[in-house]
Amino acid sequence: MRLLFLGDIIGRSGREAIIRNLADWREKLSLDLVVANGENASHGYGLSPDIAKNLHSAGVDVITLGNHAWDRRDMLGYINQAPHIVRPANYPVGTPGQGTHIVEISRGRRALVINVMGRIFMDPLDDPFRVVSEILSKHRLGVTVHAILIDVHAEATSEKMGFGAYFDGRASVVVGTHTHVPTADHRILPAGTAYQTDAGMCGDYDSVIGMGKPAALHKLVRKTPGDRPQPAEGEATVCGLMVETDDATGLARKVAPLRIGGHLAPNWPDF
Amino acid sequence: MRLLFLGDIIGRSGREAIIRNLADWREKLSLDLVVANGENASHGYGLSPDIAKNLHSAGVDVITLGNHAWDRRDMLGYINQAPHIVRPANYPVGTPGQGTHIVEISRGRRALVINVMGRIFMDPLDDPFRVVSEILSKHRLGVTVHAILIDVHAEATSEKMGFGAYFDGRASVVVGTHTHVPTADHRILPAGTAYQTDAGMCGDYDSVIGMGKPAALHKLVRKTPGDRPQPAEGEATVCGLMVETDDATGLARKVAPLRIGGHLAPNWPDF
Amino acid sequence: MRLLFLGDIIGRSGREAIIRNLADWREKLSLDLVVANGENASHGYGLSPDIAKNLHSAGVDVITLGNHAWDRRDMLGYINQAPHIVRPANYPVGTPGQGTHIVEISRGRRALVINVMGRIFMDPLDDPFRVVSEILSKHRLGVTVHAILIDVHAEATSEKMGFGAYFDGRASVVVGTHTHVPTADHRILPAGTAYQTDAGMCGDYDSVIGMGKPAALHKLVRKTPGDRPQPAEGEATVCGLMVETDDATGLARKVAPLRIGGHLAPNWPDF
Amino acid sequence: MRLLFLGDIIGRSGREAIIRNLADWREKLSLDLVVANGENASHGYGLSPDIAKNLHSAGVDVITLGNHAWDRRDMLGYINQAPHIVRPANYPVGTPGQGTHIVEISRGRRALVINVMGRIFMDPLDDPFRVVSEILSKHRLGVTVHAILIDVHAEATSEKMGFGAYFDGRASVVVGTHTHVPTADHRILPAGTAYQTDAGMCGDYDSVIGMGKPAALHKLVRKTPGDRPQPAEGEATVCGLMVETDDATGLARKVAPLRIGGHLAPNWPDF
Ligand SMILES: [Fe+2]
Ligand SMILES: [Fe+2]
Ligand SMILES: [Fe+2]
Ligand SMILES: [Fe+2]
Ligand SMILES: [Fe+2]
Ligand SMILES: [Fe+2]
Ligand SMILES: [Fe+2]
Ligand SMILES: [Fe+2]
C-alpha cells in the first residue's frame, strides 16, 4: 500500500497548494491513501466544515487534528457527522468525534488511522501510550487491517521518538506533527515501522511556524499583546512523508519525505 | 569562509565519530571553522575538561553548550581557562565563562561564535533577543568580524524560527540545537542568514534522543524512576550544517546539511 | 468522626515535631484518624520504610505521597507491604502500591483515604478527575464508608479549587498539598465537603519551602548548579487541617486549621 | 506608616466590596497607604481606565498588575497617563508604563511600590531578582523612601518565598499575588520584612479562583472549549495584608491579614 501523510496545513497558502496538486500526485505516486493534519487549515486556527469538505474533495482521505482541534467551535458539532475527521484519541471519554478511522482501500484492504496527542509541554490529556495500546489491541496488523498510521501530535522530540520506539513493529507509520518544521530523520525503525519525528507544515516557511513574522515577533520580543498572528501568505512548501507498506505484514518497505514548493529544499519520493 | 556546525554530541558514540573523521572532513570540505555543541558529550550529561581537549585536538575550534552546561561540575571551574568553550550568553551576570568567542581564521579573518538559550519550555534565563542584540551591537558583520554564528539552544520551533527572523541579515548563521533531531528546513533567509531550526545530534538515532530506549521508555510510560538513561552505543549519525559565507558581507552564499553514518539518510554538502 | 490531616512533612524538623506531640494531640482533640503527607519526610526527598514506621508508631494512621513518592527507591518495593502508605491513585496501571486505603475506626466505622496528583505544571499522570470519580463510584459516603479524605497533591490553585468544587458533596474532605504553604481558605463547601487549597508543610518556614535558604536561592538566582538543597533545621510549624464529620452523612460539620510551633501565627482548632 | 495591600480584585463582586468599604477601613485602621492588585478588576480580564479611576477615587492609592495587565488593550495607552498604575517592572525595556511608583504620604514621608512578575510556570520576563535589585540600589529604605512594598506576582511558592528571603531587610513588605488564594503564612522575616506568600483575591470564593464553577470545570475536566469563564457573582471576600512599619528604618513592626465578607473565615487586623 502506498500512503502519503501531510503535516499541519496552515491557512489558505497551505490548503491551495494541496488542492491544486493532490490529484496529480495521487496518480504520479500511485497513492492508496492520503492523510493530512488539518488543525490549522482555517486561517491558522482550527478546521471548518467547509474547508474539511474541500480537502476531502481534493483527495485527502482522512484529516487528523491536534491541540487546535476545536478552535473552530462548529467542529464540535460537525465531527460526529464526518468520521474521516479524526481528533486526538486521548481526549476524555465523551469528547465529540473519534480518535480513529478505518478507510476501505481497493482490493479489500483496510487502513487504520489514529491521531493522538503528546503531553510534555502540552495540555495534559490521557496517557497516549496507554490509549494507543488499547486501540492496537483490537487490531491485527496485516490481518484485520493492512496498514496502521499514527499521527502523534506532540511538542517534545523525546516523547515522539519514544512513541516510535514503543510502537515499533505494531504500526506501519508513526509520524509526528505540531512543531511545523519537517525533521530529516525519516527511516524504518528496527521492527519495521516507518518513522519521522515531524512531518513539517504545509505552509509558507518565510514566517514563524506559518504565521506572519511581525505579529509573531511582537509576541516573542515585546511580551505585550499585539495583532493576532495571521498565516503568512507566501508560497507554501507542502511537507509530508510517503511510505510504501507490505500488505501481508503491514510493515514499511520504503519511506521518503515529500517537500514541494516554497522556500525549502525540494524532495520528491523516488519510488 | 566555510563553516561546519555540528549538533549536540551524545556520549562516546558521537564523540568517536567526530574524532575519527573530522580531520578528513576539514580537508575535503576546505573548512575554515568547526563549531560543535558539546553539552551532552560526557556520557550524555555535560562536558568534561578532558573531552573538551580531545574534541579541540580533533579539530573542533569552538564548543557551545546549553542547559546541560554544568552537569559536569568541573566545567564551572574549567570554562574560564578555556575561552573556546562558550556557554549560553544569557545566563545571569557573574556566571563562569563567556557567551561568545572570536576565532582568528587565516588571512586576518575573524569569526564570532555566540551561544544562547531559549526560554519557552526551559529554565528562564535572560531575554535571548535582548542579550544577542547587545552583543551584535558591538560588531559589524563583514568589517570587525567576517562571520557570526549563533547556536540557539531551544525547545520551541516558534522561538527558534522567530530568532532566525529577528536576526536575519545580522548574523551569518542561526542554527538551533537541543531537540536532538535534525530539521529539513535549512535555507538562506531573505536578508542573507543561513538557518536551520535544529542541527540534530551527533549520536545513535536508534534511541530516544540519543539515550538507550528501555530507560527512556520507562520514564515516559511508567512514570516511576528507573535506571538513569545512558547514551545509546550504536553507530552515530554525525549531524550538522555547512555554510559558505561571503567574507565581504558576512552573509551566507550556500547552505547544506551534513549527515553521515548511522541510521539516517546520508547527506554530504556538495559545494 | 474527627480527622486531622497534616501537610508535607519536611525532613527531621517536621518529623520530630509530629512524633513529639501527636499522641498528646490525638487525645486533646479526640481524633479518630490522622493522615499525613510524607513525600518529603526523608531529608526532603521521599519516604524511607524506617521513617514510615516511626510516623505510624507515633500515631499517623495513613501516609500519603506525591511527586516525590519514589525519591527513596526502596519505597517502590516496600509500599506493597505497607497498605497504609498511599501513593497518587493516578499513576499508570501497574505502579507499585495503591492510591487508596480504608482504615477501620472504632465502632465499626470506616474511612477511605485517597491520594491523587494534579497535572497542571506537573508531570502528566492520568486524569485525576476521572480516576477519583471511578474510585468514588465504588463507595457510598455514610454507608459503605463513613468518611472520605482526598489529598490532592497539585501546584495550581485552579486545579485544586476545581477539584474541590467537582467532588463537593462526594467526599468529607478535599485538602491540597505540594506547595508547602498553608492557605487561609479552609471552609465547608456548599454541598458539605471540607476544603483547604493547601494544608501547608510541617517544616521550618525560615526557609524556601522547607529547604535551606542559601542553596535554594543559588538555584533561583544564579541558575548554575550549587549544593543540593537540604531541609532547613529550625523549629517546624506543624500545619494541618482538622475536620469533624457527621458519621451518618459523611459530610463535614466543622473545619479549622491547625498550626503550631515555629514561625507562623499559631492556630489551635477550638472544637 | 500603616499600609494595606489588597490581592487580585476579581470583577464586579470584588470591586464593589472594596468601593463600598474602603473609606471606612482607611479611617478605622488609620491607613497611610492602600495598594491593590487590579489585573482582574475588569470582568476578570485586565483593568480598564474607568475602573482604575473608580478604585482610585475609592481610596486605592496605587494599583499593581500582573500577567493580565494588558487584557484590556486600552491600558497600553492609558498607563502612561496614570503613574499610580504600576505594571510588572520586569517587562522588556520599552513596555508602556512603569514598574514602580512613589507615593507622597503625610508629613514628608514617601512610599515606593514595586510590581514584579515571577517566571516559574509563567511567561518568561526579565530576571525579577536582578530587576528589583537594580531598583532598590537607587533607594535607601528609611532615608530616601520610608516604606517599600513589593507585589511579586508569581505562581510558584518557591519563587515567592525565595523572593522574600532574598530581599528580607531591603523592603518593608514582600507580598505575593496571582494564585487568588490567601496564604496563612504572614510573618515578619528575620531581617524585618513583612511577608505573605499570597494575599488572596478580592472576589467570590464560591468559584474556581474567582470564576464561575461550570465554565472553569468544563475546561479542567472536558478539555474542549466551553463558555468563556466569567467572574462568580456572589459576595466577595476582601483579602489583603496590613502592615505597620517603622518610618525610621522602613522595616515592619506588625503584620496581619485582613479577610472580610463572603465565604472565608474573617480576620480583622487588631492593631
Ligand atoms: Fe499545528
Ligand atoms: Fe498543534
Ligand atoms: Fe542536548
Ligand atoms: Fe539541551
Ligand atoms: Fe512536598
Ligand atoms: Fe510535591
Ligand atoms: Fe495573574
Ligand atoms: Fe490574578
UniProtKB/TrEMBL annotation, chains A, B, C, D:
Species this chain originates from: Gluconobacter kondonii
Protein name per its UniProtKB record: Metallophosphoesterase
Xref: InterPro entries: Metallo-depent_PP-like, YmdB-like
A Pfam family reported for this protein in Swiss-Prot or TrEMBL: YmdB
